[in-house]
Amino acid sequence: MAFSFDKNKIRHNCIQNNIAIQNLMQISANKKRVPILVIIGLVLTGLLTMAIINVKDSEDANVHQRLYIYIGLMVSCVYYTSLSFADYWKTLFNTRAVLSIEQDGVVDNLSIFSCGKIPWSEITEVQVRQALKTNFLVIHVRNSDLLIARQSKWKQRMLRGFQKKLGSPVVISQKRIKENVESIKNIMADHLHSSV
User: Taking the complete model, does pTM exceed 0.85, yes or no?
Assistant: First the structure.
């Protein structure tokens, strides 16, 4: 009796098993979420533009002071609206905008503010916290300051804000992903305890 095997099939199975071992779970970004911050930013930019036009035409004594305030607010509004739009664009069109739970750590690429790969050895706790009527998956790390320092300068301010409000720079909103953050927390917590 002759024994035969298909090398391509075996190679395919080995590759599939390796992928299964490397990626325990991959959570996609929620592409259906409404870009509320972009919409609010555009509305505020429009209102500030109208206010600047009206102030320039005014003959009030405090015209220059109000004009500087409006221009400062306008610059800030355009900056944050641009960041929100870039983040929303990444969610829609970047195929790598996922959260991966892997054998050796967690890879967060969901947002332009994501911290990338975090090894299990750096993660101390995973919890769900609520803010602004939204659940957030909060991944606590051993040295938040070091993790923030490794990121781009323009990203660091936002990450420090997450750290101050929610206790960690690694924060994932329920609105950002398709899966339930509570179930993801449980999977990550189980893996975290088993890897210790």
Answer: no
Of the ranges 25-29, 79-83, 159-163, which one carries the lowest mean pLDDT score? 25-29
Q: Give the closest residue to 144 by CA, choosing from 131, 129, 155, 160.
A: 160
Report if residue 19 sits inside a domain. Answer: no
Cα–Cα dist 111/99, whole Å? 10
Give the C-alpha distances (Å, rounded to integers) separating 54 from 14, 15, 70, 74: 68, 65, 11, 14
Residues 184, 135, single domain; the answer is yes
Query: Quick one: which of 142, 170, 146, 140 has its CA closest to 158?
Result: 170
Residues 66 and 118 in one domain: no
Non-local CB neighbours of 73 within 8 Å, separated by 6+ positions: 48
Our count of domains for the chain comes to 2
